[in-house]
Write a structure and sequence with these properties.
This protein is mainly α. It has 6 helices and 4 strands; from the N terminus they run E-E-H-H-H-H-E-E-H-H.
Amino acid sequence: MSQSIKSKNSTQDDEPRVELENFIPYRLAVLSNFVSSSIATIYSERFNISIMEWRVIAVLGNYQPLSANEICECTNMDKVQVSRAVSSLTKSGRILRKTDKNDRRKSQLRLSARGMKVYQQIVPLALERERQLLASFNNREMDEFDKLLRKLEARARELCFTS
C-alpha cells in the first residue's frame, strides 16, 4: 500500500484516506506551484505578464508560428487559458495574429518584435532560477532526477489517454 493512502484500523468498514503530505500528485502540484511562483515574481513585476502569458511567450519563442490549439498541446493549458493569454498578449502588442486566408476561423500566432524582446530578456532569468533550484543536486542526482521525471511524464501521458 502506498505511503500516501493509509487505512484506519478501527473497523473493516472504514474507507482508506489520503494523506496529502505524502500523496505524490499533490506534492508535485505544490512543488510546481512554488517553482512557477518563484519564476513568476521575476517576470510579473518586470514585464507585467502572468504565468499563462509567459508560457505562451515561451512556446512561441521556440516554435512559432503556432495556432492556439497547438499552444494548448505544447503547454498542456486549456483553451480558455490560452485564449485569455493570447488576447492579453495581442492587446499589449507582444503577439501578432495572422488569419488563415482559406479558413478565417484559423490563425497563426507569432511573437512581435516586442514579444521577442520580452522572451529574450526572461529566458536568462528563468534559466538562472532553474539553476538555483537545482543547485542542491550533484550531476549523478540530476541525471537520475531527469530520468525519473521522464518516466513519470510518460506514464502520466499513458494514463491520460487510457482512462
